[in-house]
Amino acid sequence: MKVDVLLGLQWGDEGKGKIVDVLTPGYDVVARFQGGPNAGHTLEFDGQKYILRSIPSGIFQGGKTNIIGNGVVLDPLLFREEAESLAAGGRDLTSRLLISKKAHLILPTHRLLDAAYEAAKGEGKIGTTGKGIGPAYTDKVSRGGVRVGDILHNFEAKYAAAKARHVAILQSLGYPSDVSHLEAEWLDALEYLKRFTLVDSEHVINGCLAEGKSILAEGAQGTMLDIDFGSYPFVTSSNTVCAGCCTGLGVAPRRIGEVYGIFKAYCTRVGSGPFPTELLDETGETICRVGHEYGSVTGRKRRCGWIDLVALRYAVMINGVSRLIMMKSDVLDGFETIKACVAYRIDGKETDAFPYEADGAIEPVYTELPGWQTDMAGMRSEDEFPEEFNAYLTFLEEELGVPVKIVSVGPDREQTIIRYTEEE
Ligand code: GDP
Ligand code: IMO
Ligand code: MG
């Protein structure tokens, strides 16, 4: 068996949570491979809305195993909050959720450092989610991190060493060194973590593959936020791309099957950094209003713009996307004309390559397509698609060289249309 991967192709919030939930019935296992509680994955069904941060979005489809992989950074406090709210809704996770011992812990001081580094950057701040993601991954890479498995092995010494290092940095930046007020609750949440099965998830996952079980890997963030290939330095601190699934779960590259690349019918970004197709006008405001484009974790207003095919082509290439999923089609229902950026003009020259530094000098080159001006939210079959919408899909498939297999027309699980083409 193979591991199918579902990941975001833009700057995050494409709708990954919703589609993982929709696809889960076809899999035995769902696993998160990177990121942490900077993610906010929204699911809606039976009139209820749920937002997941660290727990995989397969958790609502009964009987499936969900795994938090080694590539994830886990904040025990936020994890407990999330798990307890699911448990209050009658969902017992302890039997169905496995956590990698090799996942790294987000310490209370990581959050303080995240805030301190952002403040020090002033105008140039990244606009992080403030969850301690960067500092936690920094410790992992610099070999000073504390891992989930450490709560079973000599935890005190490892924690004390990391804390002392963080406190010294905070002090040097002029912050108070007493963090005890944050510690008690965090340590308490660590105890809660012990109720879960802590595993070497690479063995579990490869064991499942050997038994013929199917696995869906759920990405967080998006390709343009990838630490290597995103709009650096305005990125997150992990590999959000397909390769991150191999390192974040212990899956060999030849074990990767389908790569589902998910994108919005337009584009959004939250936080600072380049966004060539951003609309700072009434159209951008309309997309934001109709699409309810506010961060699911931070509540921050998302920046909105037209679809960017330069960035999307790049993301398709880096990830080896085999199937596309288009979200929020309904949000464009009211537009007479839809624009798609097909190239950038930089210093008077047109290019279709995503540049080394995507700064203010980029002028998007647009193609205009007719809008459909039809309410799509109630549609349940591709036979109902308006002609103009089909033309938009065909245009995107030609530009990106990959078929669009799923179209989403609303936030609910039911508002999802799987497209069948000749080959199936
Ligand atoms: P994720 O981080 O990729 O899982 O995406 P988020 O949950 O952060 O953001 C996607 C938002 O769009 C959520 O509020 C979803 O409920 C909503 N959503 C998902 N698909 C659709 C859709 O097709 N139409 C509309 N209108 N909303 C959608
Ligand atoms: P999901 O999984 C959208 C953005 C932040 C900031 C940058 C770095 O819900 O798509 P970090 O806290 O990771 O150090 O912030 O990355 N960011 C996201 N934007 N969706 C996300 O996750 C994001 N996770 C981080 O806004 O610009
Ligand atoms: Mg999100």
Summary tags:
424 residues, alpha/beta, binds guanosine-5'-diphosphate, binds 6-O-phosphoryl inosine monophosphate, binds magnesium ion
Structural commentary:
The protein has 424 residues and is α/β, with parallel strands linked by helices. It contains eleven helices and 20 strands. A ten-stranded mixed beta sheet has the order 9-7-5-2-10-1-11-15-19-20, sandwiched between helices. Strands 14, 16, 17 and 18 form a four-stranded mixed beta sheet that branches. A two-stranded antiparallel ribbon has the order 3-4. Helix 2 crosses helix 6. The longest helix is centred in the middle third of the chain and has 18 residues, at 155-172. It is globular, with a radius of gyration of 21 Å. The relative contact order is 0.16. Bound molecules: guanosine-5'-diphosphate (GDP), 6-O-phosphoryl inosine monophosphate and magnesium ion. Residues 8, 11-13, 35, 38-41, 126-129, 131, 133-134, 220-222, 225, 236-237, 270-271 line the site of 6-O-phosphoryl inosine monophosphate. Residues 8, 12-18, 39-42, 44, 291, 296, 327-328, 330-331, 408-411 line the site of guanosine-5'-diphosphate (GDP).
| Terminal CA distance | 19 Å
Beta fraction: 15-25%
**Unreliable stretches, pLDDT < 50, 5 or more residues?**
none
β-strand number = 20
Bound molecules: guanosine-5'-diphosphate, 6-O-phosphoryl inosine monophosphate, magnesium ion
Overall residue-averaged pLDDT value: 96
Radius of gyration: 21 Å
What overall form do the CA principal axes indicate? globular
> What's the total helix number?
11
> What is the helix content?
25-40%
Characterize the main sheet: 10 strands, mixed
| SSE-based structural type | alpha/beta
Output the strand order for the largest sheet: 9-7-5-2-10-1-11-15-19-20
